[in-house]
Specification:
Blueprint: E1 10-11, E2 14-15, E3 37-42, E4 47-50, E5 53-54, E6 57-60, E7 63-67, E8 76-81, E9 86-91, E10 113-118, E11 123-126, E12 129-131, E13 133-136, E14 139-143, E15 151-156, E16 161-166, H1 170-175, E17 226-232, E18 240-244, E19 249-255, E20 258-265, E21 270-275, E22 279-283, H2 290-303, E23 308-312, E24 317-324, H3 327-341, E25 345-348, E26 354-359, E27 362-368, E28 374-377, E29 386-389, E30 392-395, E31 397-402, E32 408-415, H4 416-427, H5 434-450, E33 462-463, H6 479-487, E34 493-495, E35 498-499, E36 504-505, E37 542-547, H7 548-557, E38 565-573, E39 579-586, E40 589-594, H8 597-602, E41 609-614, E42 619-624, E43 633-634, H9 635-643, H10 648-655, E44 660-661
Parallel strand pairs: 4-16, 9-11, 17-33, 23-27, 36-43
Antiparallel strand pairs: 1-2, 3-6, 3-10, 4-5, 6-7, 7-14, 8-9, 10-13, 11-12, 13-14, 15-16, 17-32, 18-21, 18-29, 19-20, 19-28, 21-26, 22-24, 22-25, 23-24, 26-27, 28-31, 29-30, 31-32, 34-35, 34-44, 37-42, 38-39, 39-40, 41-42
Helix pairs in contact: 4-5, 4-6, 5-6, 5-9, 5-10
């Protein structure tokens, strides 16, 4: 059973606290007796890494200081010359950066005094240049920023992380490459087209749109009571939608994160929402409440032989006559109504924002998209409502809106936790162990909270497909997954007090990936971790065969004009094994595909693969591992961990580095 990450990080002999550097002039202590106290070490909440591997460090004088001996695990050679009282630190480009095991990355309260800093006579040289060094608790330390010449030093304020990316010479890149050249060409000297920017810092054509993802400090108020799901919209918008409820309907508005009932249609079991393109005659007087409009309609109805209906305006109700198909019909009706009722009537033009409500072939009301009516079952509270929208059953309420003269955007409004009832069984088999289902429920909730604004332009929060999370409505629900949602109600994953975005995937293939090797940003809680629990997945290993002509057709379809295909090879892989650079070479040019672009283009299960070529059959064989993008939680891995006896919090903390469940 994995244990929770320790909450305190003061360990005698080694200090695991992290802070970034303020690039001031380094202090110099000359002609000072060895052992003189010159300062104190303070705790900090900042994480420091070298090539994504956390390195033990601490804060002294607002600088990050690291223990020289620790650099042995981070691609450096460290040699002590006692006769000269000298430490020599040399970068070895071909030495693998493995990092130190057991480094704690959980943030702590900064400013706590830990150790005294002593002046030392030991001279420390980094690649031949002397650097300032100190003695802390018997250990020689140097400032972190003296390593900046060895690569690129970056500071991520939001993540509170200082990161050093070591420079990698061409020889090392070739050593770490899993390249397979074409047998018929054997192009050993093929060149990459590079931008000069490391692949891990480049944005790809298929990165998720993060403009609408929520970041910042987490508070329980960030979880809404209700959410809106787009069932039909954009290219899948419909001209009409049928809604059924055997117990009749209650109609209302969605205000202040609540469904507010306005009136009942308890004797009507089926309504149809249509996009409205009609003319109407409107009573010029409007009413603040539906009851007043209803009383007036009764009076008007006794005086007129016209069909009347309610119209929901911005904050008022009106009485309409109609619908009419043209202006002439409407004007004739206005004259007749004026004579019959003695009231003033006006013509209402067709609107590309109007939706009408039909029951028993009669239009009973109309409303505008900016203030849509929602319809739920009339039996009991809205939260217990189950209705049929089109061919499927859903909890909550339904409405339809229109976008720029479009067909209907159909929306399902329901409580957040009940939305998860319809998500978890679509994202993970309900027969899997309960602890895996609970981990999935927490991850799904967090992903939902982080992406509430993604579809704001359409008037809802999420869609029902993989572009958000797969949502199957009431018909998808299972008792086991509902229970997993209930047992984790309101629980969210956070990192250093911030809302975490818990990406997940089907199967890692044996190791998950770091975020910047799949998309763009380096996220401190999305680090590649060993994942032996995924090895029983049916997608642990796979093979895809594509003929040369198939690939040429795919390239042409995607506007890659490189001529006849001559060469395919992996040019660079990540430290976790996935493809960072994939070269496609043709008679007329070449194209570099970075990160997941090759997987997306060729329809592969993951970006963890090698490629071989069968010259006789002109066929490429892609041999790969895992299924999905590979970052965050592996769902098959969660299943494996649960079967081994791990609890859902252990599972989440394994896949999301340094997080809390709250």
């Amino acid at each position: 059973m994995m244990k929770d990450t320790a909450k305190h990080i003061i360990v005698f002999g080694t200090i695991f606290i992290f802070i970034f550097l303020i690039l001031f002039t380094l202090p110099v202590y000359a002609e000072m007796p060895v052992g003189t106290v010159i300062g104190e070490v303070l705790s900090t909440d900042i994480v420091a890494t070298i090539d994504h591997r956390p390195i033990p460090s601490f804060n002294y004088n607002n600088y990050t200081a690291i223990i020289v001996e620790d650099l042995r695990s981070y691609g450096f050679d460290v040699r002590w010359k006692p006769a000269e009282r000298k430490l020599e630190v040399t970068r070895i480009p071909l030495r693998e950066v493995v990092g130190k095991s057991g480094v704690n990355t959980e943030h702590v309260e900064p400013g706590i005094k830990l150790h005294q800093v002593l002046h030392t006579d030991i001279k420390t040289y980094v690649n031949g240049s002397e650097v300032e060094s100190y003695n802390i608790d018997g250990l020689t330390v140097i400032y972190f920023n003296v390593l900046s010449d060895q690569g690129t030093l970056e500071w991520n304020q939001g993540a509170r992380m200082a990161s050093l990316y070591l420079e990698k010479p061409a020889e090392e890149k070739q050593t770490n490459t899993s390249s397979v050249q074409l047998a018929q060409n054997e192009k050993q000297n093929s060149e990459r087209q590079t931008t000069g920017v490391p692949v891990t810092r480049q944005k790809t054509t298929i990165d998720p749109d993060e403009r609408f993802l929520r970041h910042g400090d987490y508070h329980p108020s960030m979880i809404p009571n209700n959410v809106k799901i787009g069932l039909f919209f954009n290219q899948r918008a419909v001209p009409s939608i049928e809604i059924k409820s055997p117990n009749g309907f209650q109609a209302g508005f969605y205000e202040s994160d609540q469904f507010q009932q306005i009136f009942l249609l308890d004797e009507i079991n089926k309504i149809t929402l249509n996009k409205d393109s009609h003319y109407y005659a409107s009573l010029q007087q409007s009413y603040q409440t539906l009851s007043r409009a209803s009383n007036k309609m009764g009076v008007i109805g006794d005086l007129s032989d016209q069909e009347l209906l309610y119209a929901s305006l911005d904050d008022e109700w009106s009485i309409y006559a109609g619908p009419f198909f043209n202006r002439k019909q409407t004007e004739d009706a206005i004259d007749k109504l004026t004579n019959q009722t003695g009231e003033s009537w006006t013509l209402i033009q067709p609107s590309d924002k109007r939706v009408n409500v039909v029951a028993s072939n009669n239009t009973i009301m109309t409303y505008l998209t900016n203030n849509p009516l929602y319809f739920a079952s009339a039996s009991g509270d809205y939260e217990k409502s189950i209705i049929q929208i089109g061919a499927k059953k859903y909890r909550g309420a339904a409405t339809a809106t229109r976008q720029n003269n479009s067909d209907l955007t159909v929306i399902n409004l329901l409580p957040m936790e009940m939305y998860l009832y319809g998500v978890v069984p679509r994202e993970m088999p309900h027969s899997w162990p309960e602890e895996a289902l609970k981990a999935q429920a927490v991850a799904a909730r967090g992903f939902a909270v982080a992406s509430l604004k993604k579809y704001a332009e359409f008037g809802f929060n999420f869609c029902s497909t993989v572009h958000s999370q797969v949502y199957g409505g009431f018909e998808a629900e299972q008792s086991s997954t509902n229970r997993a949602v209930d047992l984790t109600k309101g629980q969210i994953i956070t990192y250093n007090g911030h809302l975490a975005i818990p990406y997940y995937h089907s199967s890692s293939g044996g190791r998950t990936e770091s975020s910047e090797n799949i998309w763009t940003n380096s996220v401190p809680y999305i680090r590649g971790v060993s994942d032996e629990y995924s090895l029983n997945s049916p997608h642990t290993e796979w093979e895809v065969a594509l003929e040369k002509e198939e690939i040429e057709s795919i390239l042409k379809k995607n506007q890659y004009q490189i001529g006849e295909l001559e060469n395919l090879y992996v040019a660079e892989i990540s430290e976790n094994g996935r493809v960072l650079s994939f070269m496609v070479e043709g008679a007329d040019g070449k194209k570099e595909l970075i990160k997941q672009e090759s997987r997306s283009l060729l329809g592969l299960r993951s970006s963890w693969f090698e490629v071989e070529y069968d010259d006789a059959n002109e066929t490429y064989f892609f041999n790969g591992k895992g299924y999905g993008h590979g970052i965050g939680m592996s769902q098959f891995g969660a299943k494996g961990m649960a079967e081994e006896g791990y609890r859902y919090k252990d599972i989440l903390k394994h896949y999301y580095t340094g997080v809390r469940i709250q």
